[in-house]
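Hi V.,

You were right to ask for the full record rather than a summary. Here it is.
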Amino acid sequence: MPAIPATSVRMAASAVDLVKVYGSGPTAVRALDGVTVGFEAARFTAIMGPSGSGKSTLMHCLAGLDSVTSGTVRIGDTDLSSLSDRELTRLRRDRVGFVFQAFNLMPTLTAKQNILLPLELAGRKPDQAWFTTLVDVLGLADRLNHRPAEMSGGQQQRVALARALVTRPEVVFADEPTGNLDSRTGAEVLSFLRTSVREFGQTIVMVTHDPVAASYAERVVLVADGKVVGEIAQPTPDSVLDAMRKLGA
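Predicted structure:
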């Protein structure tokens, strides 16, 4: 795939000639094979592909959760390969948000404590107005003193969303964020992700296997056999499903 063209549009995350190999010798697996792709700031992009295509590996490399074999990964203008382990940890804490399928909340903390945890770890005081905005938009005001075991799956995922956004990160990476939710609750979560882009200028990069979930995004990047093989602008469930069928998914 050609290099990312020069543009005035700011990239929140990008990769150039990204290669990721697991293992060595005859058993080595080339999970990513020369991926070049950019994710524009203040946009909602979904990454889709067949099982084993490399889509989750791509997200993990972009987010600095996994090292790369070769190539370049950037958050904004920062080359992740130039960072020490300590600097990379600080970048993930301060400039990146994460939302996972399994919520990953601390079971002994209340919803409020879970939301504010990234700020506490960073030694930063919360922006009370922003915290209140997140809580109100996500409908969590009456759940702030509840622990995860006292909340539904949808409520836990909304807490995870608030936690991801409370630091005002440059980009939020979401890995199958609706995978453990029923369709109605999943739609609420996806609607909020879209709202966070349109109203708050957030950047969202989401890995999903669900064509309906992908249709909430403004753009879908298609991955197969460790390569970016295409994209869909303004996706619909039908256009995504058709593209996945052509990929043999």
